[in-house]
Amino acid sequence: MTYRSPVADILFSLKAVAGLPELIDGKLDGEFDWETIASVISEAGRFATEEIAPLNRTADTAGAAYENGVVTTPPGFADAYRRWAEAGWGGVSAPADFSGMGLPHLVNVACTEIWNGASMAFALCPLLTEGAIGALKTYGSRELLGTYLEAMVSGRWTGTMNLTEPQAGSDLNAVRTRAERADDGTYRLFGQKIFITYGEHDMAENIVHLVLARLPGAPAGTRGLSLFLAPKFLVNPDGTLGARNDVRCASIEHKLGIHGSPTCVMIFGESQGAKAWLVGEENRGLAAMFVMMNAARLAVGTQGVAIAERAYQQALEFSRERRQGRSAKGGDGKGEVGMSPIIEHPDVQRMLMTMKAYAHAARGICHLTAASLDLASHGRTEEERAAGANRAALLTPIAKAFSTLLGDEATSIGVQIHGGMGFIEETGAAQHMRDSRIAAIYEGANGIHGVDLVLRKLPLAGGATARNEVNAIRDVARAVSERGGPAFGATSARLSEAAEALDQATRAMQAWLATDTESALAGASPYLRLFGLTLGGGCLAKAGLAAQALARDGYDSELARVALARFYAAKLLPVAPGLNRIVASGAASLSAYEAVLADGS
Ligand SMILES: Cc1cc2nc3c(=O)[nH]c(=O)nc-3n(C[C@H](O)[C@H](O)[C@H](O)COP(=O)(O)OP(=O)(O)OC[C@H]3O[C@@H](n4cnc5c(N)ncnc54)[C@H](O)[C@@H]3O)c2cc1C
């Protein structure tokens, strides 16, 4: 199957949904221009299509290998990574002072989709490095920045995120890894971390571990966690690599998917302790780690977009070649007894259009989130920056959980379109489904993001951040009704209904937060889905309106975007009032769970 990075669709979404040209024209503090951005993204697409995507299948079958503490990545990964780093891709949004390109985060998210569409297993290494760069940039001392940042931005050294321990997954209160103060102002780490992505590998000279650990006498729970940097190789004062630190990989996991990405058990401090440096302040580690986690959450949401798109391209190609049954068009006389390509059957068309609509809707949501992050850090006024930060905080759990949910659904539909061949590994459709599955689990399982959305994000700015989002969707529905015309079908009506359902569910949630937390928590995941579904409809309608305007200037080829918005409104958005009803039913139907789930019943 030939996969191509969807550069044109990404550029369209950056323009029409996220408003990047307006952002760089008037709202962001910096020197960027659209032509440079478009050429960077096009080149990323070329690199990913030609150099990374062809490795995806062999990476799945060969996997990462472990022997005596040494991890070998699949054939081609180390070479492709070296070329990727040499081309400067590690520095897309990193500041120019550290040899980065200094481009908006939106561009970075566009590139993240491109790398992950080519190979999720490969792209995880840069994904975590970028998160580590963000945390260091914000909280690292001048000395740490001087020693580590440029090597990480250049891709010579990679980064990891070490949170999880056997007893501490979603709940980091239980982290036990111990840190001790050393006489020279550094620290020593002792403990075991599990599931550490690219904790050990052969693609870079050094690995920079960011580790959550607890100092003696620290308060219990997450308030007693500090963040430390512990490199694989200690760095000499002149920047060269010195002795091996007391940290090693004990084993790697055998997984359902992303076989090319090593998932490591890491042991810190088997003898004298892993030498480490504090990042930020003692006992304030979670705040620093949150910079990394938030970046990684949006990036993982983008993985959902990427894998949905890749599965869609593959299913589309298959559906044009596979012939079964005779469609209403009557077949074209080719193949056995004049059978039609399966793409001519309405049910297959529905499945393909659902996959495509999912990819476009989730992409739009991720782009809106990234645009808010850009405003939060580069907005021209304090007010703009504060509004950007609140919007990014609201949208991040939706971008992560909704996009990865759609990634799972799209890849599963992709298998279905392949029929029996979808279940056979050689076609590759099953790999997308297996690879996709982890994205809804790591970086906070999706259920945790529902809880985060409801408990922490809805109350932002006294509820105004969520209200503004609902109103922005209503504005889009109004614009479709005023300017869209018949080509949009019932888009405006369905989008208005969905916005109404979201508004009602939001009010119910906000009322429960004060009176009935159980009901709020019981509805958290369906509420997140309702929010994502409605926001995604808004994104597609916005793209449709922009496409229609272009068609008036002679770009008729863009009109398919109107049809996609119409399809989403007709076939997917009608679920919104049902989701509102699910939310409204609260916790009552769960109250008998002990009886229902009792053994033997
Ligand atoms: C391939 C892979 C790569 C990973 N990479 C990294 C990495 O690089 N660094 C790192 O630190 N970790 C990493 N992880 C760990 C990952 O982040 C955790 O697996 C994830 O956060 C879930 O934690 P858990 O597995 O302990 O599940 P649990 O916390 O045990 O959760 C199990 C289920 O219970 C639900 N649940 C738990 N608590 C609540 C609650 N309060 N409310 C509602 N539902 C709840 C969850 O949603 C989930 O469905 C990786 C994991 C895998 C499999």
Poorly predicted tracts of residues? none
Number of helices: 20
Q: Which structural class do the helices and strands define?
A: alpha+beta
Give every kind of bound small molecule, once each: flavin-adenine dinucleotide
How many strand elements? 12
Instruction: Give the averaged pLDDT, no decimals.
Output: 95
**Strand-residue proportion:** 5-15%
User: Taking Cα atoms only, what radius of gyration do you get, to the nearest Å?
Assistant: 24 Å
- The outline comes out as globular
Distance between the termini: 48 Å
- Helical content (DSSP H or I, runs of 4+): 55-70%
The main sheet comes to: 8 strands, mixed
Overview in brief:
The protein has about 600 residues and is an alpha+beta fold. About 55% of the residues lie in helices and about 10% in strands. The chain has helices at about 5-15, 20-25, 35-50, 55-60, 75-85, 105-120, 120-140, 140-155, 285-320, 345-380, 380-415, 430-435, 445-455, 465-485, 490-515, 515-520, 525-550, 560-570, 575-585, 595, and strands at about 65, 70, 155-160, 180, 185-195, 205-215, 225-230, 235, 240-245, 245-250, 265-270, 275-280.
Overview of the molecule:
This protein is an alpha+beta fold and 601 residues long. The protein is built from 20 helices and twelve strands. Residues 161-164, 169-170, 195-197, 255, 263, 438, 441-442, 444-445, 447-448, 451 line the site of flavin-adenine dinucleotide.
Question: Strands, helices and their partners?
Answer:
Blueprint: H1 7-16, H2 20-27, H3 34-52, H4 56-62, E1 65-67, E2 70-72, H5 77-86, H6 105-118, H7 120-139, H8 142-153, E3 157-162, E4 178-181, E5 187-197, E6 206-214, E7 225-231, E8 233-235, E9 241-244, E10 247-252, E11 263-268, E12 274-279, H9 285-321, H10 346-378, H11 382-417, H12 429-437, H13 446-457, H14 464-484, H15 491-515, H16 517-522, H17 524-552, H18 560-572, H19 575-584, H20 593-596
Helix pairs in contact: 1-6, 1-10, 3-6, 6-7, 6-9, 6-10, 7-8, 7-9, 9-10, 9-11, 9-12, 10-11, 10-17, 10-18, 11-12, 11-13, 11-17, 13-17, 14-15, 14-17, 15-17, 15-18, 15-19, 17-18, 17-19
The chain binds flavin-adenine dinucleotide.
Flavin-adenine dinucleotide binds near residues 164, 196, 255, 447 and 451.
